[in-house]
Amino acid sequence: MNTANTALLSVQHLSWHADSQLILDDISFTIKKGSFTGILGPNGAGKSSLLRCLYRYVKPDSGSVQFNQQDIWQQYDAYQYAQDIAVVLQETPTHFNLTVHDVVALGLLPHKGLFTREQASDRLKIDCAIKQVGLADKNLQNFEHLSGGEKQRALIARAIVQTPSLLIMDEPTSHLDVRYQIQVIELAKSLGITVIASFHDLNLASAMCDQLLVLDKGKLVEQGSPQAVITSEMLSNVFGVCAQVSLHPQHKVPHISYFYGYDIKEKTAESRALPHV
Ligand SMILES: Nc1ncnc2c1ncn2[C@@H]1O[C@H](COP(=O)(O)OP(=O)(O)OP(=O)(O)O)[C@@H](O)[C@H]1O
């Protein structure tokens, strides 16, 4: 298959400095239309910085980000790009006195502008999205009174209303309990659009993603399928942990069991000797 035709996003030789420190170092990858990509890496590896470059919040010092074969800085304006990209961040924004309906309606802003009145067709779209994320009974509730998981689902509903081609999520599950973590990622996956999300839960990323990118100290050190990327060597080299990688009993994707209280080198050698499930 010709990847040039199926790539929605292409990042080439992207580098970015902040305070004269190199934060992102010569990063190149492509994202296929309709795929779900996970960005992994230890604290401070550059995941959020990379995502900020993708949603046009930060301009790289060198290299390019192409969306639909067009450079997002040279050939798109901010307004046009905002129509195509939806962003869900880990810290939910404060929306004082806005109902769930009002927050979800904000997804229409990039298409309509601030002072356009809501029409019946808009209301239908908003209600459908709220139903899709399972919040129909909270429609008129104050957004601030939702639980963390419900807030994330409302923000995904806002993204659904926006009808983007690409959904970018920066650690969308970091404050959620395990049920909401799975629910929020499965919901994003069910939209059938291209999704890029950063993760700290490597097993969740392995289960949900088609492609993984691993950052370490600003460099892209691994990329490929979960099968190719999630290995005990990578976990030792990048995350500094001892772990055994086996197959998940349900989906047969790599599943990590962490070891505790061992010296990394000693345990990595030992775990290699263990039979994989
Ligand atoms: N605007 C900035 N000015 C200076 N340093 C920055 C800026 N943005 C990011 N950094 C630095 O870049 C490095 C990468 O930060 P980033 O938030 O991208 O990492 P991350 O992989 O998302 O980390 P975490 O998993 O902890 O959220 C950190 O050392 C951070 O302090």
TrEMBL record:
It holds the Pfam family ABC_tran. One of its GO terms (molecular function) is ATP hydrolysis activity. PROSITE patterns: ABC_TRANSPORTER_1, ABC_TRANSPORTER_2. The keyword Transport applies. Keywords: ATP-binding, Nucleotide-binding, Transport. Residues 9-242 form the ABC transporter domain. Belongs to the ABC transporter superfamily. This is ABC transporter ATP-binding protein. It comes from Colwellia hornerae.
